[in-house]
Amino acid sequence: MKLTRTNYPPSSPLGDVDAFFRSALGGFSEFGRILDQTGLLEKEAVVPVDIFEDDDNFIVRLEVPGVKKEDIDVQLEERVLTVEISKTEACKVSEAQAEDNECGTSTTRRLSVPESVDGAAVTAKLEDGILTLNLPKSEEAKLRTISID
After folding, report:
1. pLDDT, tens digit, for every residue of 76-89?
2. Which of 34, 72, 98, 105 has its CA 20 to 30 A from that of 125?
3. Which of 111, 105, 98 has the alpha carbon at shortest distance from 52?
4. Cα 78 to Cα 112: distance, rounded to the nearest angstrom
5. Exposed (0-12), middle (13-18) or buried (19+): which is 62, by Cβ within 10 Å?
6. Which residues, in sequence order, are CB contacts of 80 under 8 Å at separation 6+?
């Protein structure tokens, strides 16, 4: 069994600009703290992923505590597995505001999938905050024992 733990740095909506300002303003901790509080340099959540392999399957486990299955979208397209989590909840913008607004977070995780995966047989299960994806290997890719005559 192979185990691969991946926890890539999150991508920012501002991309390289965000990284530039974070590094350039690193010496100015007070100014950087103010920017973080305003949300101008907001960080995207990173979903931890564990990937296992056995003789018949690849197993992908993502930690998604507090997320309902209705908030998760899983897609497999052209050897890219995409897991998108969109969580919305009611929140107030300020005390003076009488009506509630909808606030939420969204994060996406993309993983490259080997050609040996049988895309039609992929299954997903959410249990106790762990999303488990079972990616079966195609029959051609499974290990076979060849007898010697």
Report:
1. 998 899 999 887 77
2. 105
3. 111
4. 9
5. buried
6. 110, 111, 112, 113
